[in-house]
Amino acid sequence: MVSTHNLGFPRIGRQRELKFALEQFWRGETNAETLQETGKSLRLHHWAVQAELDWQPVGDFSFYDHVLDTSQLLGNLPARVDKNADTLSQYFQASRGQAGTNCCNHQIAAAEMTKWFDTNYHYLVPEFTAQTDFTAHPERLLKQVKEAQSAGHQAKAVLLGPVSYLWLGKSKDESNKLALLEKILPIYAEILGQLAANGVEWVQIDEPILVTELSLEWQQAFQTAYFSLAKSPIKLLLTTYFGQLQQNLQLACELPTAGLHIDAINAANEITQVVDWLPSHKVLSLGIINGRNIWKTDLNQALDLLEPLHKRLVDRLWLAPSCSLLHVPIDLASEQNLDTEVRDWLAFAVQKLDELQLLAKALNSGRESVAEQLAENRQAIQRRQRSIRVHNPAVKQRCEAIQPEQALRQSDYAQRAKIQQADLQLPAFPTTTIGSFPQTNLIRQARKQYRLGLIGDADYKQQMQAEIRYAIDKQLDLDLDVLVHGEAERNDMVEYFGQQLQGFAFTDNGWVQSYGSRCVKPPIIFGDVSRPGPMTIEWIRYAQSLTDKPVKGMLTGPVTILNWSFVRDDQPRSETCKQISLAIRDEVIDLENSGVKIIQIDEAALREGLPLRQSQWQEYLDWAVESFKITANGVTDKTQIHTHMCYSEFNDIIEAIAAMDADVITIETSRSQMELLDVFRDFDYPNAIGPGVYDIHSPNIPPEQWMVDLLKLAAKRIDKQQLWVNPDCGLKTRRWEEVEPALKAMVSAAKLLRDQL
Ligand code: GLN
Ligand code: ZN
User: Fold this and answer.
1) pLDDT in tens, 616-625
2) How far is the CA of 602 from the centre of ligand 2 (A)?
3) Is ipTM > 0.90 here?
């Protein structure tokens, strides 16, 4: 008999119950007890959904983030949390920080947040120093184990393993994190002992760093850790996901654990090798259902792969999704408005678990026992393969016919810069913003009414034009040099374009946790992408008609659209990206033809797409940069191309940034004291740069002198002729009362520098 289990279930709830419960609690509208009740009822509900599996995961639920849960479990919340507060308050102090209210109530900075491997989920970074001590706090986990057991479930505890935990954290004093291993292992042993004492048989111990390139030191840490934990009276399922084991394969197979889970989607080519290496007493859990995408599994094909393995492994074979289902929406049943044809191709978390059960049944009782479902699945897979909604020959032909010249500008940057300056006549230190202006309630309401059909085209257009006029007038008053229309008509920088492109579908409730209570609803790219008609021209043209100053055309780049969507699994990502790049290219050319002189193509998510293994970075960067250039470079020298990126780590990708060859790049720098410009300086980056001088994430209004100082720091690193002056990012989350004085100070900072430097 094969067994089934799940690595983790989405926590947020079908109706985002957890989000709303958390936010109510944070606003002080409910008490801790109510929040705990919501947590419990969600857990019970999620286990009920997973009841048919042989094991139910316990410990995957979290009020904010499972890495922070692990920190609390190990007694390693940041030292600055209030020792006298209760555990829940301490937990939220670490996750969200706490503003200082009076002399005795100190401000507590939140823990740093960063991306969880190559997903769009963010975890809270554990903090270490050489002095860090750990203590076991298994109460919450044990309580949840009891909850599951009393509801009749087979609790399999889920823990983040000690080596990955250390690896994911940050040393605050430059000390070697690995030196903490010997301190942390007894704590893990204590927790494992407690779990065993509470009737837990299996622990899923997540060590996802086994799919990354590990130095010898870290490989050895695995040996030390697992030989030590092997003494615990409990079975460990060493769990890896998101990629291939490669050079860590033998290590993962041989560590003394009772079982190993591998990602059978991303590491499909390693299955045979793993089966060969795996000692004959060990369980092999195959992550056969893709936990990262939303497509139906080809069950017949999966069975072709599984049947011979089942013959060989018999009871030692377990089946699961490839990774936690945290990364997919919960239930297709919550979608009432999804195109029925597309819907037929999809599986969300609940459907994925059904698929898992079906595979297990086919293996345990023969394919005949589920013949009908398998036939149905085969038909759905074939319908998708053959659909004309998926395959558009014109798009494929156009992609094949792309010529290298299409990705090239007419002249090099130096020449273009002269031509553009002659036309634009911008002052030194030109000032601009990144695109969006405050999204007021009025704007949101208008968009909503329009979406619901409560107001018509003409009404909506009039309201949006009024917003654009308002934003343009404000910018003229502020005396900014390059204006924007303000993006009032956009709910989201990807969704706005996806909704106007062919090949995209949207869900009503397909929420995926990004961090804490924040969720995103990624579009689904199901088919060949094309642009039926202009998407932004009318708004930009209107904005430009109101002023003689240049207004930037504002677009989202192909790589960002790709990286923030669920993408097709039937062609390489690079191919999908190329299709998007052609669609946006058409928009760029249309903008140029309507007299727009500056076009900004945002690539906020370019860095996010970097593969887990550095050895694969170049390949990704090559096609990502090529896609951007196809989008951007259909214009004449006179048109100035801007791009924008919201992060502050360019060391690894500076070459790619230079290859993108945008005339101007605006980046986030205000919080790094311009230090990140060092990499641009060291690279001799020739094109113009707008380092953000105003942190838009905070409601604080930056003083003029502060921005002057930042710009001077920038001018020490970059030729002043290359410098632009702008905020870190778009202003849509701010209020006009904050934006106006901040931009006023920014513009006068720029003017001051024009005179001084
Ligand atoms: N143009 C977008 C805006 O201003 C850019 C947002 C982003 O980079 N995340 O909102
Ligand atoms: Zn940004």
Assistant:
1) 999 999 999 9
2) 8
3) yes
